Amino acid sequence: MHLCTLLAVAAAKAALKACHLAGRPGSSLPGRAALKIDSHIIAPLAAQVRRGIIVTCGTNGKTTTNNLLCSALEAQGFRVVSNRLGANMKEGVAAALATAAGPLGLLDADYACLEIDEASAVHILPYLQPDHMIITNLFRDQLDRYGEIDLTMKALEEAIRLAPSMTLVINGDDPLTAFLAKKSGRRFASFGVSEKVAGAGATEDVSSGEVRESRFCENCGAPLKYEFYHFSQLGVYHCPSCGFGRPAINYDASGVRLSPELSLDVIESGAATVDSSSPQKIKPAFRESTAAPVRISAPMTGFYNVYNILAVYSVLRELRLPADKLNEVLRDYKPQFGRGEVFHVGQNSEQKILLNLAKNPAGFNQNITAMLQDRSAKDLIIVINDNAQDGRDVSWLWDVDFDRLADDTIRSITVSGLRALDMQLRLKYVEIESVCAPTVEEAIARCLADGCGNLYVLVNYTALYEAHQYLEGIQK
User: Fold this and answer.
1) How many C-beta atoms lie closer than 10 Å to residue 395's C-beta?
2) Which is more confident, 74 or 390?
3) 88 alpha-carbon distance from chain centroid
4) CA angle 95, 359, 216 (to 5 degrees)
């Protein structure tokens, strides 16, 4: 081990200790300190991971998918290093690896599960050389940072090229991730939902109000034909012009139920025989099929979590590992840092607060769908900031179906954050009244004092830490 690497590990550990003393999580700063000393520190640490490195990319669902996979591997007795708090840029990945290493720079890990920002992947994957990459979905997100969706696709395409031995695990219901797999020519496995799901908002209507990121074939530019959409561009599709289409689904969910908790059957299929001349067919990863569906249940809300669960199941099976402990993992799983996190406050913990990240149209629409599946009375807080990490451009708010908030179960709506007035205007446009609170803390305090005891808090990225800290404090 080079002296430079040892010093970088020591710096990371010292920075982590300083962060903890200051009451901060230390998910990125230790990595920044390590990279200042050894800019290549990721490579020698990643090379010590014994069994495999799995990275998770995609617009929505990265943190939940990554953390569930980490827990599923740990449940099987493996030692796993992971950036569980969602610090997914180069500093966060370096921090996860360096702080997990011993003082001599030795990393005792069977697997590494690492969430990676799509725009940063090209700067990280050459050092990691992962064995598998999950791509959850690709939606429009932070236009002033990522640009339009095609720029994100180009960044991921280049990152995939830089890790030549990597197998892809993709959401086959997303034509964008499917096209990425096709263009890469890599081995891949796909997961998806081949039937309509009651309560998930499936529709055949291409003209419905929801924004679709991919109405046209990435292969030839002709309009895609959908049997139905689940949400956004996710669904069952094909191109009548060139033949591009939804790939054969290797891990297919059926019998999906969204309440009272999520449940689904996973049906595995073996590798399909494909015609290499057909533009919709990509060389799939080899796998064995199971004889019977596997029933999975999870105390979660939201159809989007079906995809997160499918991604985890798919990777376990691609690693030739059993998935028999996944139900136990899901039952015990505690959502991380504002990803469907539930707080109970009050003298007898009688008031329930659900905190969730909502940072783009697709994610916000799915949060609204999940919230409206709860037919009890509720209050709602929406917090919108426009700091650099959020993206300065909040025009995406006009692509969210906020008219659905005109629902009898929603007693009140409070807006807050740096762009609270923009949010209030957006609601006023669909004739929905709201009140404005100067801070997140005041918004929550008001709703707890005057509300019905069932509170939903939807925040974008930089508002998440403030809301989480306040809720943790009052829960104690």
Assistant:
1) 10
2) 74
3) 11
4) 110
Angle at 152 between CA 150 and CA 157, to 5 degrees: 90
Residues 6+ apart with CB under 8 A from 6: 103, 104, 105
All residues at 6 or more sequence positions from 256 whose CB lies less than 8 Å from its CB, including other chains:
193, 195, 197, 200, 262, 263, 264, 303, 306
Alpha helices in 49-89 (DSSP H): 62-74
pLDDT of 204 strictly over 90: no
Structure token pair of residue 170: 């993709």
CA distance 149 to 142: 10
* CB atoms closer than 10 angstroms to residue 239: 21
> What is the chain's length?
476
- Let me know: does 118 contact 86? Beta carbons within 8 Å: no
Name the β-bridge partners of 342: 354
pLDDT above 60 (res 270): yes
Give the end-to-end CA distance of the chain in Å, rounded to a whole number.
44
Return d(Cα 463, Cα 468) in angstroms, integer.
9
Query: All domains of the chain, ordered by start, with CATH?
Result: 43-332 (3.40.1190.10), 339-475 (3.90.190.20)
User: In whole angstroms, what is the distance from residue 82 CA to residue 50 CA?
Assistant: 14
pTM: 0.90
Helix extents (H) in 261-392: 304-318, 326-332, 361-372
Tens digit of each residue's pLDDT (9 = 90 or more) over 436-457: 999 999 999 999 999 899 999 9
Residue 291 confidence (pLDDT) above 80: no
Tell me the CA distances in angstroms from 184 to 127, 242, 286, 332, one per residue in order. 19, 18, 17, 37
